[in-house]
Design brief:
By secondary structure, this protein is an alpha/beta fold. The protein folds into four domains: about 10-210, 3-Layer(aba) Sandwich (Rossmann fold); about 220-375, Rossmann fold (3-Layer(aba) Sandwich), CATH 3.40.50; about 375-435, no CATH class; about 465-565, RRM (RNA recognition motif) domain (Alpha-Beta Plaits, 2-Layer Sandwich). The chain has 21 helices and 22 strands. The chain has a seven-stranded parallel β-sheet with strand order 3-4-2-5-6-1-7, sandwiched between helices. Strand 3 (about 105-110), helix 5 (about 115-125) and strand 4 form a beta-alpha-beta unit. Helix 6 packs parallel to helix 8 (about 165-175). The structure holds adenosine monophosphate. Adenosine monophosphate (AMP) binds near residues 29, 33 and 52.
C-alpha cells in the first residue's frame, strides 16, 4: 500500500457510511480496518489474522455495504460465524453501519431460532445473511436460501469454527457458492486446517496481520481486571478513590465516549476533561496545559488525541476500553512512568477480549497481574485513614481555629453536651457523602458475582486446541471427560445416545459444536462424549426441556440427524423443567452483556458503601 491510512476519509467509502462513522464517534480506522478495507474495496480476497476487539467486524462490513446493490434483495454477502451470539452481534453491527442505507436488510440465521420466522424473512429478502454453519447448511439443503447472487463470503473467527467442529461444514457451504466471489477469512490464529481452507477457497489473498510491538517500560506496574459482576464505571471510581493517584489518563474507543465518561466523572466530583481529535488545536492545548499544571486530574482520551502526550504527572493509565492492537497498548502505557518515574497501568478486559490480553502479554513479554476491584471495605478504610490524617494535619497546621473553638464551646454550653459528642456528630456529617462504614453483605455479594463461573474462553481454547481425545487401546477415541473442578459444569447429567458415530465421521468437537450451537446448550454443560462405531453417547444436564430435546433430534452432525434418545429410555417431560438446560442466552461463549451504568444526579466520588 502506498501511504498509511490514518483517517476514514482516506478510504474510498461513500458519504452515508462516512457520516455513520462520524455519528458513532469513530475517530480513525483501527489497524485491521486501515489494512483490510482498501483490499476488500478493490475486490481482493483477504486472509486476516485478527481477533475480537480489533474492529474486524467493520473491516469487512463497511466494504460489503459499500458495494451492495440495495435494489437487489437477494443475499449478496454471507458471513459465517461460529456461534449464534456472534451471528446476532455481527448482524447488529451491519444494521448499525447501514443506518443511512435505506431499505437495507440483514438476516441472522442460527439454530434454536424458529425456522418459520427465518423462512418468512428469507422470503422477504435480505442483502446480507449472517449465520452459523449448521443452520446455513439446513437452509441450503432445503433450498430456502439461494446464494446465486452472492458476491462476498466472510468466515469470521475461523479458528473457533474449527474448534467447534464446523470446518467441514464451512467447506461444504463454500462449495455451494458461486465460483466468482470474494472471500475474506478472519481468524485469531492460523492453524494448518485453516490455512488449507484458505488455500482451497481464497484466490491470491492479501494477508493482513495486526502489527505487534514489543518492549514496555519496566517501571510500569501492569494490572488487569477481568470485567464481571460490576459496572466498569463503578470500578473505575473505586480505583480512583483507593489508589495513590496523581494524574490519570483514561483511554476509551470513541470521541463520544470521551465526553460521556468525562461528564460522568465530573458529576462524581473529579476535575476531569475529554481529549479527542475533533477538538480545536487551541482547546486541546489548553486541556493538556491544565492537565500538566494540576487544574485537571483526569483526562479521558482516544488513542489519536493522546498520541505523543507528555505529562510527567500521569501516575496511572487506565485502559477503560481495551486497545485495538498491542502497539496501541504499548503507546498508551508509555504515557506514564516518564522521565525515570514509576507508573501504573490498569486494563479493563471483557471475558471475550481475553485473547487480546494474551496477545499483549506475548508482545510485551510481560505478564499482567490480575486485580480485583477495590472492595467497599477497602474504600471505607481508605476514607477513614484520610479523614484521620486530615484532622491531624489541620491541628498541626497554620489554620486559625480560634473561631471554631468558640463555636464548640457555645454548643457545649447551650446544649449541655460534651465535645466528644459534638465530634461524633461532626464526623458523621463529614462522611455523609463518603461513608466510612461499609455493608459487608454487599461486599460478599459482589465477590460472589465477580467469581468467574467458568474458565475464560481462551484458556479453554488452549486446552481444546490440543487434541483433547485420548487414543484408546481398542483404537476408539474418546473425549476426555470434563473435569468437575474449575470451569466444568457440576450440573447433574443424564446420558444420551445419538445416532452418529465413527463411521459417519463424528468427532467430539462437531458433536459439542452441534449441540452447543444448534440447541443453545452451553458447551460447558456438555459432559463426557464417547464415540462408537455407529453411534455415540453424550452426557447432558438433567431436566432438558422437551422442546430442546425435540429440536436436538433433528440437528445434524456431519449431515446425519442425531436422533437423540435417552439411554435409559425415558423421554424428557413436556413442561420446561427449571432453567438448567435452557438455551444459553448470550453466554454460550462467555460474552457478558454489559449493562449501561446508571447515571447519578448527586456528585459522589465513589459509589455508596
Ligand atoms: P470488533 O472487533 O469488530 O468486535 O469491534 C470491537 C468494538 O470496537 C466494537 O464495539 C466497535 O463498535 C468498536 N469499533 C470498531 N471500529 C472502531 C473505530 N474505528 N473506532 C472506534 N471504535 C471502533
Amino acid at each position: 500500500m502506498s501511504s498509511p491510512i490514518e483517517a476514514f476519509d482516506q478510504l474510498a467509502l461513500s458519504p452515508p457510511l462516512l457520516a455513520t462513522l462520524v455519528e458513532l464517534g469513530y475517530e480513525a480506522p483501527t489497524p485491521i480496518q486501515a489494512a483490510t478495507i482498501p483490499y476488500l474495496l478493490d475486490g481482493h480476497d483477504v486472509l486476516g489474522q485478527a481477533q475480537t476487539g480489533t474492529g474486524k467486524t467493520a473491516a469487512f462490513a463497511l466494504p460489503i455495504l459499500e458495494k451492495l446493490n440495495l435494489a437487489d434483495r437477494q443475499p449478496q454477502a454471507l458471513v459465517l460465524t461460529p456461534t449464534r451470539e456472534l451471528a446476532i452481534q455481527v448482524a447488529e453491527a451491519f444494521q448499525g453501519y447501514a443506518r443511512h442505507l435505506p431499505g437495507f436488510h440483514v438476516l441472522p440465521i442460527y439454530g434454536g431460532q424458529s425456522m418459520s420466522i427465518q423462512l418468512r424473512t428469507l422470503r422477504r429478502g435480505a442483502h446480507v445473511v449472517v449465520g452459523t454453519p449448521g443452520r446455513v447448511m439446513d437452509h441450503l439443503r432445503r433450498e430456502t436460501l439461494s446464494l446465486t447472487a452472492l458476491r462476498t463470503v466472510v468466515l469470521d473467527e475461523a479458528d473457533e469454527m474449527l474448534r467447534m467442529g464446523f470446518i467441514d461444514d464451512v467447506d461444504w457451504i463454500l462449495e455451494q457458492t458461486p465460483a466468482e466471489k470474494q472471500v475474506a477469512l478472519f481468524s485469531a490464529t492460523m492453524p494448518e486446517p485453516i490455512r488449507r481452507v484458505a488455500h482451497r477457497h481464497l484466490r491470491d489473498p492479501k494477508e493482513v496481520k495486526i502489527r505487534t510491538s514489543t518492549a514496555t517500560v519496566s517501571t510500569v506496574r501492569q494490572r488487569y481486571w477481568r470485567v464481571s459482576g460490576l459496572h466498569k464505571l463503578d470500578v473505575l471510581t473505586r480505583i480512583l478513590e483507593v489508589e495513590d493517584v496523581d494524574a490519570v489518563l483514561i483511554f476509551v474507543r470513541t470521541k463520544t465516549e470521551t465526553t460521556e465518561l468525562a461528564e460522568r466523572l465530573e458529576a462524581r466530583g473529579h476535575a476531569c476533561a475529554a481529549l479527542h481529535g475533533d477538538m480545536t488545536q487551541a482547546l486541546r492545548e489548553k486541556t493538556i496545559e491544565q492537565f500538566k499544571g494540576g487544574g485537571l486530574d483526569i483526562v479521558v482520551a482516544t488513542d489519536v488525541a493522546a498520541r505523543g502526550l507528555d505529562v510527567l504527572r500521569i501516575s496511572h493509565v487506565i485502559n477503560y476500553d481495551i486497545p485495538y492492537d498491542t502497539e496501541a497498548y504499548v503507546h498508551r502505557i508509555g504515557r506514564t512512568a516518564r522521565a525515570g518515574r514509576t507508573g501504573d497501568a490498569i486494563l479493563f478486559v471483557a471475558p471475550r477480549e481475553m485473547r487480546m490480553l494474551r496477545a499483549i502479554e506475548k508482545a510485551t513479554r510481560q505478564t499482567l497481574e490480575p486485580m480485583q476491584p477495590p472492595t467497599r471495605a477497602a474504600i471505607a478504610d481508605r476514607r477513614l485513614t484520610q479523614f484521620k490524617q486530615q484532622i491531624s494535619e489541620i491541628l498541626a497546621g497554620q489554620q486559625d481555629l480560634d473561631f471554631f473553638y468558640q463555636v464548640i464551646g457555645e454548643i457545649e454550653q447551650e446544649q449541655e453536651i460534651s465535645a466528644h459528642d459534638i465530634a461524633a456528630a461532626l464526623t458523621w456529617l463529614a462522611q455523609r457523602d463518603r461513608p466510612f462504614q461499609h455493608d459487608e453483605k454487599a461486599d460478599l455479594k459482589e465477590l460472589e458475582a465477580a467469581r468467574p463461573e467458568r474458565e475464560p474462553r481462551d484458556s479453554r481454547d488452549s486446552r481444546d486446541s490440543r487434541d483433547s481425545r485420548d487414543s484408546r487401546p481398542d483404537g476408539r477415541r474418546e473425549r476426555r471427560p470434563r473435569e468437575s473442578g474449575r470451569g466444568a459444569s457440576d450440573l447433574d447429567k443424564v446420558r444420551y445416545r445419538i445416532e452418529v458415530g465413527r463411521e459417519h465421521g463424528a468427532t467430539p468437537q462437531n458433536i459439542v459444536g452441534a449441540i452447543a450451537n444448534e440447541a443453545g446448550i452451553d458447551s460447558q454443560n456438555i459432559g463426557r462424549i464417547e464415540i462408537f462405531e455407529d453411534y455415540s453417547t453424550v452426557d447432558l444436564p438433567d431436566g432438558m426441556p422437551a422442546e430442546i430435546f425435540q429440536h436436538l433430534r433433528r440437528v445434524r452432525v456431519r449431515q446425519h440427524p442425531m436422533n437423540i434418545s435417552r439411554l435409559d429410555g425415558q423421554e424428557p417431560a413436556r413442561k420446561r423443567a427449571g432453567s438448567r438446560a435452557q438455551p444459553a442466552t448470550g453466554d454460550n461463549d462467555n460474552r457478558p452483556v454489559e449493562r449501561k451504568p446508571a447515571q447519578r444526579r448527586t456528585p459522589k466520588p465513589a459509589d455508596d458503601l
